[in-house]
Amino acid sequence: MYKLIAIDMDGTLLKEDKTVSERTKNAIKAAKEKGVQVVIATGRPIDGVTRYLEELDMYDENDCVLTYNGGLVLKTKSREVISKIALTGADLHYLHNLSKELGVNIHAFSDVHGLITPKNSKYTEVEANINGIEININDYSDIEDDHSIIKVMMIDEPEILQKAVDNLPKEVYDKYTVVRSTPYFLEFLNKAVNKGTGVELLAKHLGVKQEEIMTFGDAGNDLDMIVYAGMGVAMANGFDEVKEVANYITDSNENDGVAKAIEKFVLK
Q: Is the pTM of this model over 0.70?
């Protein structure tokens, strides 16, 4: 029996219009009624998912959420931190300089300042609009080297970002967890951070075994939790590399893929 279900949001839980289908809501509700802990596992900050947590009744005292691709795991209502693995201001300065060399835009999430960017751009606007948060213009000169930075993102048109990816120094992959969450978002996190680690830390907190975990995802930043779980489920619309390591491939996000797999493996 599965006791913990972790679900990615964009391309997985959410349809293309950013809504959750009634069938998926009902499947999640039924799983929770069976005593299964259902959590969202996202690259977004908690402020970007609160309305979905409330809509899915995941906002009680014991409900949890994985944010920033597992960099910050916390209780949804009290925001009590279960685990946190961050970058530093020194990392931000290094990646900012690299972004200038590569010719791509950048922004980051600071514990203190929220979403910060040296200049506003199209995809920082996308980030802010998705999450319902403010953009803070900051040239990073006042960010101290020991400042806590949850994640840094290079953001740009897909073809521009791809060129940057192709030219990233090898040392970047040695220093950071690097994930392409969308064609226009490249994310940099602490080397110890990925959704798999986040799920593992949450499972240990809850006393859930690895084989009792089910995860859903579609993109590169979901790969680690798909591999880690006893039942890793890839979406039909997912990246090929995610499908290749999944235990099961369900239907697409547009066709109730999450609901169908929960019905098959949890509610049967």
A: yes
